[in-house]
Design brief:
This protein is α/β, with parallel strands linked by helices. It has 2 domains: about 5-250, TIM Barrel, CATH 3.20.20; about 260-335, Non-ribosomal Peptide Synthetase Peptidyl Carrier Protein, Chain A, CATH 1.10.1200. It is about 45% helix and about 15% strand. The strands form 2 sheets. Strands 3-10-9-8-7-6-5-4 form an 8-stranded parallel sheet. Strand 8 (about 175), helix 8 (about 190-200) and strand 9 form a beta-alpha-beta unit. It binds flavin mononucleotide.
Length: about 325
């Protein structure tokens, strides 16, 4: 099974050499987290958090796209907004920063965003959505892709017709989260509908929703015949997960996930990077990741509670080192 996904841009074509991609995740997929994910997934396409085009124009959020080209692998920049000119300008800025491709968010269900006409609201305002794609395709050379859902209120909205039009205007790939905006995260991602759409479109289709491990990914690829899969919540606390799924698809073998000690060292590494780049605010961001990673081992819940309350980086590190020592002592006693 070929793993390459070929995308057409107006001036630059791209080849993605892995079927497994990292979702754009607001508040999660910053450059530091992507660096961790990249260790296990050298070929995967990783997405930035969604970036608001209007804010970017005003100078906010530029750190989210700065120095993308220094990352060792493909990074897609996701933009959300409902103003075609602003989105095109932001896309150009992202392209200049080294974006592998530009993705337009047409799926975000958050009320604050949809109310202003961005994210999933574009599924309703198809004329504007099509204009957005048309403008961005004209503005940049790299491929322009769209991430969307199966409908606004229901799946009876002829989403296929909408996707055909996006394809006609030059969208190079569509990622489908198999739920409607109304569903949010409830119910199940409808892989059957993704399969139906995959059959109709000529451009690559990426399946998204409820893919958390290699079995899910293999099942989803088989059921949908999609060109790839995109992983969202499954990465939280498990930055090796994209690499793990990629390995299973590529090699048809099980991957050895980091052991508890390695996971604890990973927390320290992540924290150090966050503090180095973001100062004290880094600790706040680290807390979220710690609570996701610190699970499924003896003493995890206790450690997690202590770590969340820790007041500074040194206290976090000391608690983790103490835990590693306890684990090693237990191992030696058993040996
Ligand atoms: C914390 C969080 C942040 C998200 N941020 C974005 C985002 O910035 N852009 C986007 O298109 N989708 C975003 N999503 C949706 C995911 O990319 C993905 O479509 C959804 O979680 C379904 O995939 P999953 O079942 O693998 O999680 C977010 C989801 C979560 C849980």
């Amino acid at each position: 099974m070929s793993s390459n996904i070929k995308l057409k841009g107006r001036g630059v074509n791209r080849i993605i050499m892995s079927k497994v991609m990292l979702s754009p995740l607001a508040g999660v997929t910053d450059n530091i987290f992507r660096r961790l994910v990249r260790k296990w997934a050298p070929n995967s396409l990783l997405f930035t958090e969604m970036i608001n085009a209007t804010s970017l124009k005003k100078g906010f959020g530029t750190q989210k796209i700065n120095q993308i080209d220094l990352e060792e692998g493909p990074v897609g920049v996701q933009i959300f907004d409902n103003r075609p000119y602003a989105v095109s300008e932001a896309a150009k800025q992202a392209e200049d920063s080294g974006a592998f491709l530009i993705d337009i968010n047409m799926g975000c269900p958050v009320k604050k965003i949809a109310k202003k006409g961005g994210g999933s609201a574009l599924i309703k305002d198809r004329k504007l959505a099509i204009e957005l794609v048309k403008n961005v395709v004209k503005a940049v050379k790299v491929p322009v892709t769209v991430k969307t859902r199966l409908g606004w209120d229901s799946k009876e909205e002829n989403i296929e017709d909408f996707l055909f039009k996006l394809q006609d205007e030059g969208a190079a790939m569509i990622t489908l989260h198999g739920r409607t905006r109304k569903q949010g995260f409830s119910g199940k991602s409808d892989w059957e509908m993704i399969a139906r759409i995959k059959k109709l479109l000529e451009i690559p289709v990426i399946a998204n929703g409820d893919i958390k491990n290699p079995d899910d990914a293999l099942n989803c690829l088989k059921k949908t015949n999609a060109d790839g899969v995109m992983i969202g919540r499954g990465i939280l606390g498990s930055p090796w997960k994209i690499g793990e799924i990629d390995y299973a698809i590529r090699e048809n073998k099980n991957f050895k996930e980091p052991n508890t000690e390695e996971k604890l060292y990973l927390i320290i590494e992540h924290l150090d990077e966050l503090i180095k780049e973001k100062g004290d605010h880094g600790l706040l961001i680290a807390r979220k990741h710690i609570s996701w990673t610190c699970k499924d081992f003896k003493g995890a819940s206790n450690l997690r509670n202590n770590l969340i309350r820790a007041v500074d980086k040194n206290e976090v590190k000391n608690l983790i080192k103490k835990m590693i020592k306890t684990l090693n002592n237990e191992k030696n006693t058993l040996a």
